[in-house]
Amino acid sequence: MAKLDTGTRAHLEWLGFVKPTGLVVSPPALNNAGAVLERSDREGQRLLGEAVSERVFEAAEGPRPWLPDFESFARSVLGWSFSSAGYAGGSGAPLSDELALHLPDYGETLKPDFAVRELDSDHDASPWQLLVSSLEPGQDFERVAAGRGKLEASPHSRLERLLRAKGVPAGLLFNGRALRLVSAPHGESSGWIDFTVADMLLMAGRPICTALRLLLNERRLLSLPKQQRLTALLTESRKYQNEVSEKLAEQVLHALYELLRGFQAAHDLSKGDLLNDHLRQDPGGIYRGLLTVVLRLVFLLYAEERDLLSEDDTFVNHYSLAGLYDRLRADATLHPDTMDQRYGAWAQLVALFRVIHHGAKGANLRLPPRHGVLFNPDRYPFLEGRPLPSVAQNHLRVEAPLVSDGTSSARWRNSWCSTGTASPTARWTSNRSAPCTRR
């Protein structure tokens, strides 16, 4: 299985901690722009700690760390100078009326508290790259503020509406307890990342603090070459995502085609017994079953790549996808002309799917049962060579369909081993347009 480079892994880790909603930045775009995450950035965490105070927001919680003032935080932690050449608001240049959105129907005007200029902006682009809204201490980003004929919208919705109306690509919400970086490109869905102050102060949260400084420090916003600034990072992340989605759509089709080809051959070898019942009673279930196999493999790739499954030698050597892939690749190198006459890989996948669903115990092997729908062996019994309907019996031998190793090898090659800067799992899991398998 392809290994992640150090830079990509570092960015995937902090993005995994903060769990972005939608797309904001992608690891490949960050790497291409030279945005390296310094794991030993103690200075940022120290500066954040000096800027933090404690305050009780809810009696049940007790005192919580918070940042009393955005401008002080931005100066000390992000290195903003608030010079009139690059900023507006606060002690910098006054905010111009061009950044205000007047809503006469609601008797209200939306405007930011701070703004960062886009130096060397294109002729048809906004001269601003980031708008900042500083809220009341602890104010919920998502809570809708209603009242007396005014706009009923959350702070997040207000900022997003302002960004889209003014053509500004990014915004920042600040309530003292967290910062939310919002990406709202024209004509596309928005995405956002929350940087929680309490999390960034933890030892394990250092990468989050480092990432915040990496994205929003003054050098990134104003001094670096244009292709390395925040706006370019957001734009390139969207472009990369679109390219990946197009490639993945093709790869999904290739994977499904290879599976269909393999099951058609296995159906012929069974003299029509394998799929006859399914073709008569639920022909659409064959498509859903094959697609479910693809989704199962995505899940397992993700879990194995992050060491979420067992590290026991029995599992790693005889059940894991990584081990199976290595054996298929070696066999394809040594016996390229006979892969379609070799069998065994599909039977191992069937066994792995059963293990994930029912769990397993051994000398050092502990896998808890996951049950659920995705790995349920009775949902699509033809995948195990069983008729429809039938119920899996764990004590009975399973006669797996004779899907050739050539089919399995081709599926790996066409689907998760294509070239790219991200890992196979990162490329697969970044796709949000996979067909639904729910009935």
Structure report:
The chain is α+β, with helices and mostly antiparallel strands. It folds into two domains: 6-228, no CATH class; 247-429, no CATH class. It has helices at 6-18, 27-32, 42-51, 70-78, 155-166, 197-201, 206-216, 218-223, 230-269, 276-281, 283-305, 313-318, 321-334, 345-358, 405-415, 424-429; strands spanning 53-56, 63-66, 87-88, 101-103, 108-110, 114-117, 128-134, 170-174, 178-183, 191-196, 360-361, 366-367. A six-stranded mixed beta sheet has the order 3-6-7-8-9-10, sandwiched between helices. A two-stranded antiparallel ribbon has the order 1-2. It has a two-stranded antiparallel ribbon with strand order 4-5.
Compose a concise summary of this entry:
The protein is built from 16 helices and 12 strands. It has 439 residues and is α+β, with helices and mostly antiparallel strands.
Separation of termini? 32 Å
Number of distinct beta strands: 12
Element order: H for helix, E for strand: HHHEEHEEEEEHEEEHHHHHHHHHEEHH
Q: What shape does the CA trace take? A: elongated
Oligomer: single chain
Number of helices: 16
**% residues in beta strands:** 5-15%
Classify the helix fraction into a percent range. 40-55%
pLDDT average, as an integer? 84
Major β-sheet profile: 6 strands, mixed
Structural class: alpha+beta
Query: Which runs of at least 5 residues are low in confidence (pLDDT < 50)?
Result: 414-439
Number of individual domains: 2
Rg result: 27 Å
**Strand order in the sheet with the most strands:** 3-6-7-8-9-10
